[in-house]
Amino acid sequence: MSFTGFEVICRTEAELPEAASRLLRAFPASRVFAVAGPMGAGKTTFIKVLCRLLGVTDPVQSPTFSIVNEYKVPEGGSIYHFDFYRIRSVTEAFDIGYEDYLYSGSYCFIEWPEVIEELLPSDAIHVSIEGEGERILRF
């Protein structure tokens, strides 16, 4: 794995925990992370690793059909995992009460954030995942 500024290259899935740790250390006060990349890039896999680092012990799965999953952390509180792939308009995000989640102070990890880009908090951290085989993560 190599790290240059805000770019991490992971050659294997085993390197993802270090990449996730670097992301969390780089933005210790941030709570909203918009994770973008093409289908199959590894967005859900990376979010699983982030959740594990933050103490989630329950299964972490893509919320493709439910839109949002809530995971409890041992010291109390929640982590929210969104998948906006099936959302067709920002109105649907309003319908699920996105503001309650994104402005809760809890960690929020968002897949397909480009669908609700205009609703993201100005301090959201944008993460892109690219590549096949090795993955390039930029944040």
Question: What structural keywords apply?
Answer:
4 helices; 8 strands; alpha/beta; Rossmann fold; 139 residues
Short description:
The protein has 139 residues and is of the alpha/beta class.
Please provide a written account of the structure.
- There is one protein chain.
- With 139 residues, the chain is an alpha/beta fold.
- The chain has a single domain (30-127), classed as Rossmann fold, CATH 3.40.50.
- Helix content is 24%, strand content 27%.
- It has helices at 16-26, 43-53, 90-95, 98-102, and strands at 2-4, 7-10, 32-36, 68-72, 78-83, 107-111, 125-130, 135-138.
- Strands 1-2-8-7-3-6-5-4 form an 8-stranded mixed beta sheet, with helices on one face.
- β1 (2-4) and β2 (7-10) form a beta hairpin.
- α1 (16-26) crosses α2.
- The radius of gyration is 14 Å and the shape is globular.
- It starts with a strand and ends with a strand.
- The model has no long low-confidence stretch (mean pLDDT 92).
